[in-house]
Amino acid sequence: LNSVYSGIAVKLTEFENHRTDSQFEDSLTLKTFSFQFLNSFSALFYIAFVKPFIQETDACVGDNCLAELQTALGTIFLVQLAVNNLVEVGVPAIQQYYAAKDAKEKEASLGIYPEDVSEVEHLLKLEEYHVLHGIFSDYAEMMIQFGYTTMFIAAFPLAAVLSFVNNYV
After folding, report:
1. What is the pLDDT of residue 77?
2. DSSP structural state of residue 90
3. Number of C-beta neighbours around residue 47 at 10 A
4. Own/partner pairs for 76-81, CB < 8 Å, 24+ apart?
5. Which of 22, 65, 69, 169 could disulfide-pair with 60, CB 3.0 to 4.6 Å?
């Protein structure tokens, strides 16, 4: 839902018609990060702080929910890392491969060969990296990872190492 709401947040912020770019960015940041915080951490807060005090049949064993918190956080964190990396690296690589293949076929049919194309023309064919929206999703992903790492380090210590490796790569 984080990716779905990001698009909705952009549309709602554009609808507000802000006077300056900084007001637009502030409003978008508030909408996006508040929803992502609630969406990413509400289940974990429930398991860690509410569930031990509920006297139901599905309550934690011995009022200790650390094992369930570990499982939930590990699953959410690892799936989120895998999906985000697949979307950020895999999808553009596949798109670039097919675009290059189509471009070679088109250029060959027109009699243009790769040695005739300058570096500037290669750069022109690259996908545009939006000034705001390009880095915004990267910062949002790092903010969620930082939250998992700092707030629930006792339940899943491997999150710190995985966050570091993911952001380094």
Report:
1. 92
2. I
3. 21
4. 76/40, 76/43, 76/44, 76/148, 77/145, 77/148, 77/156, 77/159, 77/162, 78/162, 80/144, 81/162, 81/166
5. 65
Tokens encoding 94? 């596949």
Quote helix, strand, coil % in the chain, to nearest 5: 80, 0, 20
- Give dist(CA 2, CA 84) in Å, integer: 11
Render pLDDT for 52-101 as a digit per residue (tens, 0 to 9).
877 776 677 666 788 889 999 999 999 999 998 888 888 888 988 888 78
pLDDT at 146: 92
Q: How many CB atoms lie within 10 A of CB 145?
A: 22
Whole-number Cα distances in Å, 50 to 39, 40, 63, 142, 143: 17, 16, 11, 26, 24
- Find all residues with CB under 8 Å of 113, minimum gap 6, and list them: 107
Residue 104's alpha-carbon distances to 3, 56, 117, in angstroms, are 34, 64, 11
CA distance 60 to 94: 44
